[in-house]
Amino acid sequence: MYSNYIVLLMLRICIGKVIMKIDHLAIWVRDLEKSKNFYTKYFDLICGEKYFNAKKNFSSYFLSFKGQVTRIELMHCPDIFEANKITTTGLAHFSVSVGSKEKVDKLTKRLRSDGYSIVGEPRITGDGYYESVVEDCDGNRIEIAI
């Protein structure tokens, strides 16, 4: 059985066109294991093997949704945080579609009860989306949407 990624790649080769897509989003985190646990627990992400580069003291995990090819990379390098080289510019947020208004409400309630900061209550936005916004354990904003 081929994975969805292999099938998609084979189709692109057969058709002769390369379709652009987002391969992954990368997020710097202060505690790699804590962040991995957050994303796998609340968003049902599948975690790949931990990568470690001893020369750079860099470690990361790739996380993916079942059946999807776009991934999230959680990255950690203690030297970067110690040198204050991480800035707040860059990724503003990313959005995870959970499928229904009820699921947005339920996950938002669960995250709140587990002590995470809800920075945007469930609502219909001006452009018609139903969403809430939560901060993960490093303050990265995640939009939870239908």
Structural description of this entry:
The protein is α+β, with helices and mostly antiparallel strands and 146 residues long. It folds into 2 domains: 1-10 and 20-91, 2,3-Dihydroxybiphenyl 1,2-Dioxygenase, domain 1 (Roll); 92-146, Roll (2,3-Dihydroxybiphenyl 1,2-Dioxygenase, domain 1). The protein is built from 4 helices and 9 strands. It has helices spanning 4-15, 32-43, 78-82, 101-113, and strands at 24-28, 46-47, 51-53, 58-64, 71-76, 94-97, 118-124, 130-135, 141-145. Strands 1, 2, 3, 4 and 5 form a 5-stranded mixed sheet that branches. It has a 4-stranded mixed sheet with strand order 6-9-8-7, covered by helices on one side. β8 and β9 (141-145) form a beta hairpin. Residues 7-11 have low confidence and may be disordered.
Write the layout of secondary structure elements.
Elements: H1 4-15, E1 24-28, H2 32-43, E2 46-47, E3 51-53, E4 58-64, E5 71-76, H3 78-82, E6 94-97, H4 101-113, E7 118-124, E8 130-135, E9 141-145
Parallel strand pairs: 1-5, 6-9
Antiparallel strand pairs: 2-4, 3-4, 4-5, 7-8, 8-9
Q: How would you classify the helix and strand content by structural class?
A: alpha+beta
What's the CATH class label of the largest domain? Answer: Alpha Beta
Order of helices and strands: HEHEEEEHEHEEE
| End-to-end distance | 30 Å
Question: How many separate structural domains?
Answer: 2
